[in-house]
């Protein structure tokens, strides 16, 4: 994959950030591993600082607030203001399961350009809620995309991939490295997996490298443009790919994990 530059900034399809890691659902094979992560919410000031740095070298077509479930963030309007103030992108979107979007404050809808609503067959959003969200989006000029999802693709393998050839093949076939760029806690990643795979699978694999560091570019690097471009255009797999199936896993009916026992 090769990228074009415009005024010294790399043109990309999209950039996202996980505004929270926790979620009110527990989807099997959740790509950001939300059901297995501790609760965490981004600080708007810290996100703004990261995005201001990144905006000097990156020009995504759209910026997405994802998670976890973004509407669990205690101050989503402040997060949206931080994104705007950074100048990273004009189009700002939120990706949600919709369960809390029904009752979210007006201040969120006023600050959004787009919303992607994932309606899962294993935890369907009531049609009445969908109608209300549609009405609120129309009222605020928010472009709504509804995705009905009844299957998931396995993305986390049962065990690390055994051969280098398998890892290379998974990386070569993976579209997430083009469409799911992530900014998270001071680093840029070409996909959403490295920091969370490290947190969730790291304890069971003592030989695992520090994925969040080796597969992420620090935003305070002096040669940020070259490093980000090098990451995006690399032909060799990430260290994380050994613990991931990317877009190569089998499809299964959508399902929820059992509720975690209360601690
Ligand atoms: S709604 Fe999204 S973030 Fe939440 S568990 Fe399901 S896939 Fe993961
Ligand atoms: S870790 Fe590798 S295979 Fe997994 S999503 Fe990222 S680039 Fe794709």
Automatic annotation (TrEMBL):
Domain of life: Bacteria
Secretion signal span: none
Chain ranges of the Radical SAM core domain: 7-232
Cofactor(s) needed: [4Fe-4S] cluster
Keyword DNA repair: no
Molecular function in Gene Ontology: catalytic activity; iron-sulfur cluster binding; metal ion binding
Keyword RNA-binding in annotation: no
Keyword terms, alphabetized: Iron, Iron-sulfur, Metal-binding, S-adenosyl-L-methionine
Protein name, per record: Radical SAM domain-containing protein
Organism this protein belongs to: Myxococcus stipitatus (strain DSM 14675 / JCM 12634 / Mx s8)
């Amino acid at each position: 994959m090769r990228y074009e530059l415009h005024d010294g900034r790399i043109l990309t399809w999209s950039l996202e950030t996980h505004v929270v890691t926790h979620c009110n659902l527990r989807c099997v094979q959740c790509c950001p591993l939300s059901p297995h992560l501790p609760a965490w919410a981004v600080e708007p000031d810290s996100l703004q600082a990261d995005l201001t740095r990144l905006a000097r070298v990156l020009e995504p077509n759209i910026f997405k607030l994802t998670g976890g479930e973004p509407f669990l963030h205690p101050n989503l309007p402040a997060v949206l203001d931080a994104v705007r103030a950074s100048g990273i992108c004009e189009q700002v979107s939120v990706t949600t399961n919709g369960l809390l979007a029904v009752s979210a404050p007006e201040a969120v809808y006023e600050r959004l350009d787009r919303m992607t609503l994932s309606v899962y067959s294993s935890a369907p959003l009531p049609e009445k809620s969908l109608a209300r969200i549609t009405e609120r989006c129309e009222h605020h000029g928010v472009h709504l995309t509804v995705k009905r999802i009844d299957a998931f693709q396995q993305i986390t393998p049962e065990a690390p991939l055994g051969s280098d050839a398998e890892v290379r093949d998974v990386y070569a076939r993976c579209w997430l490295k083009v469409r799911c760029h992530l900014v998270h806690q001071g680093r840029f990643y070409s996909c959403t997996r490295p920091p969370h795979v490290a947190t969730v699978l790291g304890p069971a694999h003592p030989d695992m490298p520090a994925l969040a560091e080796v597969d992420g570019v620090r935003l305070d690097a002096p040669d940020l443009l070259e490093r980000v471009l090098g990451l995006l255009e690399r032909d060799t797999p990430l260290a994380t790919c050994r613990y991931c199936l990317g877009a190569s896993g089998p499809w299964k009916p959508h399902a929820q994990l059992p509720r975690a026992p209360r601690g």
